[in-house]
Amino acid sequence: MPLVKLDENLYILELFHGPTLSFKDFGARFMARAMSYYASNSEHRISNRKGLNIIVATSGDTGGAVASGFYGLSNIKVFVLYPSRRVSELQEKQIATLGKNVVALEVKGDFDDCQRLAKAVLADPKLRSKINLSSANSINIGRLLPQMFYYFLGHAQYLGLRKSYGLAKSLDRPVFVVPSGNFGNLTAGLFAERVGLPIGKFIAAVNTNSGVPEYLRSGKLKVKKTRPTLSSAMDVGNPSNWARIMDLYGGRRDAIKGDIDAIAVSDAETKKTIRDIYKKFGYIIDPHTAVGVAAALRTKISGPKIVLATAYPAKFKEVVESAIGKKIPLPPQLARRAGFEFCSPKIQKKKKQSIVIEPKKEELHKILLNR
To answer: Is 12 found in the same domain as 42?
Structure first.
């Protein structure tokens, strides 16, 4: 997870060096191994029923990271709900070509429909009495706790660079800019701050689907119907973790505003930022990281900003190549590495194995019980 310095006020923390080229790999793999241990060890098993069924809704990157993390683990089956035609081709391949214990469910709707379905079955007492259920979304705190380390690692690297470049000690509390959809990664940052990490402020960089900037301005959180954007993994109209953030601050908007700013970025600005950063620094960013960089450049908060880079640019080849006018390959250092088949170019040739469903709880019930 290297920290890349673009200039004295702009740093990129690359969190995409995992198997599926997403920042979610670290948390998902940690959680998968922990769950597998408890599902396989009868001494620690909560229920007498064998096996665990993981329900996960994804707007793109979560699904691939969870599928990769749980793939092939015994006693666990993963059901990944993703919105039909609203994820990139590579994201869908990472979800829907694996088979074995990974079941890809292509939902005729948007991410909020997928999330609603997942929450509905997880809260159903009759279904839970028949099968063991859990979640791998960021509503599961097991995903967020490992992600706290992103902030500690980024801050430690930043202090090293600050010392190397002779920056003033007064700049020891950088601003973290977090591309945000369901607000899980930002919540992990708030946890890191609560346990002592010195952070100047957080900026939630969102696309036009989020109502959080308006909430911070007016106190009214307007839930929107999501629309497709270039930063598709952030197309969330009703973020689950916002309730968790509200709870952290006791529902006090002024207290939240003391730690968090939110900036919405349009598709046009996203694409322009990809182009401008490449032209100025020769550095390539994906659309989600571009939302973060655009917010970092637009904010009135002074001082150094650390932008969390959430995905490798090649996962969104069409958008990035159109912006910079250059072809970009998958990273060969990952494609060649043993055990990293999930980002190999060979995945492009694999056949999709998804089950198409309507966004109805009854359809998901049948699939869970029959499998």
So the answer is: no
Domain enclosing residue 357, as ranges: 25-140+349-370
Q: Are residues 180 and 92 in the same domain?
A: no
**81: domain CATH number?**
3.40.50.1100
The residues annotated as belonging to the active site are 24
Are 71 and 33 in a shared domain?
yes
User: Do 65 and 17 meet the contact criterion of CB atoms below 8 Å apart?
Assistant: no
The string of pLDDT tens digits covering residues 283-315 is 999 999 999 999 999 999 998 999 999 999 988
In terms of domains, do 71 and 181 share one?
no
Instruction: Identify whether 335 is part of a domain.
Output: no
d(CA 160, CA 166): 10
The tens digit of pLDDT for each residue in 36-90 reads 888 776 554 555 566 889 999 987 778 888 888 889 888 899 999 999 988 878 7
Question: Model confidence over 199-218: pLDDT tens digits?
Answer: 999 999 999 999 999 999 99
Tokens, residue 180? 């945000």
User: Is 337 inside a domain boundary?
Assistant: no
Extract the tokens encoding 336: 């060649």
Band (pLDDT 50/70/90 cuts) for residue 278 is: very high
Residue 252: inside a domain, yes or no? yes
Number of domains making up the chain: 2
- Considering the domain architecture, whether residues 74 and 156 belong to the same structural domain is answered as no
pTM of the model: 0.83
